[in-house]
Design brief:
The chain is built from 3 helices and 8 strands. It is α/β, with parallel strands linked by helices. Strand 2 and strand 3 form a beta hairpin.
Length: about 150
């Protein structure tokens, strides 16, 4: 009938196959957890304007506040508007928000009433207007979140 060598080889290969299937299933579970677990980004949109109604271009960054494990998110401000989607938006929770205004050299020169370039663009920017604001926002996890900011010039 069966000799010991044949039985031993069959048992060995059955255990090896079972172990391989177990390892592959375990690896699949781990990879599934890495891909879908973690922080969920949210669609966020809104406007940024000065208290005098002026809208400007620049950038807006949502940086997770201390204790919030979410990713940072940065978007372009165009005529005071910004928009994040689920791929690049912030996660739910408290954030420090940094708004930066970008101003062209031409605008800086016009604001100073000068036709000649200033000695230092940084000096002109400081004289012309405030360029950066730090705010806070608590992003809610209830669908599409709108977050509007009114800034002091």
């Amino acid at each position: 009938m069966w000799d010991r060598a044949a039985i031993g080889a069959t048992v060995f290969w059955n255990h090896r196959r079972t172990a391989l299937v177990g390892v592959l299933l375990g690896l699949g579970i781990l990879l599934e957890g890495c891909g879908k677990g973690g922080v969920v980004r949210l669609p966020v949109h809104g406007t940024v304007a000065l208290s005098n109604g002026e809208k400007f271009s620049g950038t807006i960054a949502f940086l997770p506040a201390e204790g919030n494990p979410g990713p940072a998110a940065t978007a372009t401000l165009s005529d005071g508007g910004y928009q994040f989607n689920r791929g690049d938006g912030p996660a739910a929770g408290p954030h420090r928000v940094i708004v930066r205004r970008t101003v062209s050299k031409r605008t800086l020169l016009e604001s100073r009433g000068s036709k000649t370039p200033p000695a230092s663009t940084a000096t002109a920017a400081g004289a012309a207007a405030k360029m950066e604001w730090t705010l806070s926002a608590d992003v809610a996890d209830d669908g599409v979140y709108q977050c509007d900011f009114t800034l002091e010039p």
